[in-house]
Amino acid sequence: MKKRVLVASPVRQRTNILQEFLESLELLDNTGLELHFTFIDDNNQHDLLTGFARGKQHVRIIPVMSDDTYLCDETTHCWQERLVWKVAEFKNRLIAIARAEDFDYLFLVDSDLYLHPKTITHLVSLDKDIVSAVYWTKWTPDMVPLPQVWISDQYCLYHAFRGEVLDEEEKGRRTGHFLQMLAKPGTYKVGGLGACTLISRKALSLGVSFSEIYNLSFAGEDRHFCIRAAALGLELYADTHYPPFHIYRESDLATLQLHKKKVLGESVALKEKDISLNQGQPGREKKGKRITLAMLVKDEADRYLSRVLRQAARYIDNAVILDDASQDDTVAICKNLLADIPLTIVSNPEAGFHNEIALRKQLWELAVATNPDWILILDADEIFEERAIEVLPALACDPNVFCYYFRLYDMWDEHFYREDPYWCAHQSYRPFMVRYVPGFPYQWRETPLHCGRFPINLGELNGRTSDLRIKHLGWMKPEDRLQKYYRYKQLDPESKFGIKEQYESILDPRPHLVSWVEDDAS
Length: 522
Prior knowledge:
Structural class: alpha/beta
Low-confidence stretches: 267-286
Distance between the termini: 24 Å
Mean pLDDT: 86
Largest sheet: 8 strands, mixed
Number of helices: 15
Strand order of the largest sheet: 3-2-1-6-12-8-13-11
């Protein structure tokens, strides 16, 4: 069932700016959504809203008449107290409509923004109760661009503990850190937001409101909304993946035309992703779609490394290899097979396999340092079925997914995989490919063995399963199984980090095996 979203805006706007705003609404992606529109027409002297509604379902225009004067020029906008609370009343009216008509979300947006087509679909995918798309504005012509979200109070852009005294240098440093964070695509918890905000049904039902809090001196209805929301136990988030363009001054309209070309070009590229990907490697080089392979290796020359890398080289764009003090030709094989791909190789002087968590975190940091779009982590004995060459680059094109989950099959020889109560990894989905999100608080399972290849809190990111399967080749040979058996017994003699019965079952002479059928997506 499609989610119902009420897109709503109080409108008192100059004709040339409102035309651009309405154009961006026309171009909104509504995949999986049912969009309704409600405008409060505050005495506009034009029929643009009526024109937008013509021929459409689910468009409502609420006329109001007022004699207030709203002053704005090429310097700034002048908000009088009476105007602030009039707009707050309008927004509360829109909240009441969304609540009464049981919408899944209310998207409150100012009428001087030009939205990216993916704005609403992306914000909905984040599954947050209150989240704003971040835009940047020169509040006066001589200022640097600043965001419409903040950390605390009236418009504080740095974090400080209660009672903490900071000098101006430290305030500047922390402000810079906050702004640099927002400059990177991501979703971040903030203390204040507004003007381009998605509000969930849960938040609506709890009583969010723009009404004045009588004992609060902060100016602006957005501050009162945010403080009330926090008091209700709701968290506020800012998202920077699809920044709107703020038409703060009429002089911004010229710059908007350049912005529109970029935005619309990206939108078309997303729609045509399947075409571009089927044309080979160049289609994968676009920003946001690059797949970086990250792999931990140790003495893999005579095992499965060559087979794995030959396939991976056909769908990855970069590679990061962490070599744990190999004594064979592992590094040379990596350099040879990945010669045509940007490659980072780091060799540790001493083996660290006894402390897997340290190696996994080291590999992650090496991959992050390459400024990746997607990080795909495979072990040197793991290989996708062959259709991965087409499927993986296509998966990397979806801007609304941040983590892909696949099934891993423990192969007991080339044609059979093992299946019994202790060998059923293929019955569940695990993360293997993750979009890197700067600023996200990644957390690890701090155990020396079986710590996982990825941070453990990826469930907080929007994920999706794929029917593409992975073969785990590391159990195929009797000598491999014997070596792993003794390794686990040595590193985990008391079975603190694994299952004792599974360890013992490794050497089962008559395991239950199931035939592998290539490209079976069932």
